[in-house]
């Protein structure tokens, strides 16, 4: 155990977060996301039994978001015609606001199939047991600055 490290972050995930450089992206995937097929070139970390919000919150205590892009956090847009609510997005925006001064304006949306293409280039994809639909979130890591 280490002081100041959220318990939900496994040693494997901490290692991956340390390995990531500026502009590298990671996807925190819901339970329906095709992790294995999208992550052929990514490090896959399993966080079974956990939901996306708690993983997102823990990760954002450890890494900054990229300040050189408008939307360092991106969500998968709902497909036209799908009649689903996405209240989990509000939760994500609250979490981002807690960790980034840009608040909800740091969060953007990417069309579903474009999100898949972007996910294929991610450094890491984290598999969760999140049951909410359209609950995938992509983060772009920023620069860690010593204060």
UniProtKB/TrEMBL annotation:
Gene3D superfamilies: RbsD-like domain
GO MF entry, a single one: isomerase activity
Pfam families: RbsD_FucU (PF05025)
Keywords: Isomerase
Catalytically driven reaction(s): alpha-L-fucose = beta-L-fucose; beta-D-ribopyranose = beta-D-ribofuranose
Source organism superkingdom: Bacteria
PANTHER family: FUCOSE MUTAROTASE
The protein, known as: Fucose isomerase
Organism encoding this protein: Blautia ammoniilytica
């Amino acid at each position: 155990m280490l002081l100041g490290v959220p318990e939900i972050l496994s040693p494997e995930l901490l290692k991956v977060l340390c390995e990531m450089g500026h502009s590298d992206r990671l996807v925190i995937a819901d339970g329906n996301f095709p992790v294995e097929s999208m992550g052929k070139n990514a490090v896959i970390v399993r966080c079974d039994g956990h939901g996306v919000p708690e993983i997102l919150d823990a990760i954002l205590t450890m890494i900054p978001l990229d300040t050189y892009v408008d939307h360092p956090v991106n969500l998968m847009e709902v497909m036209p015609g799908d009649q689903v609510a996405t209240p989990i997005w509000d939760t994500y925006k609250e979490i981002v606001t807690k960790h980034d001064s840009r608040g909800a304006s740091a969060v953007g949306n990417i069309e579903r199939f474009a999100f898949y293409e972007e996910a294929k280039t991610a450094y890491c994809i984290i598999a969760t047991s999140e049951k909410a639909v359209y609950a995938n979130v992509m983060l772009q890591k920023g620069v860690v600055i010593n204060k």
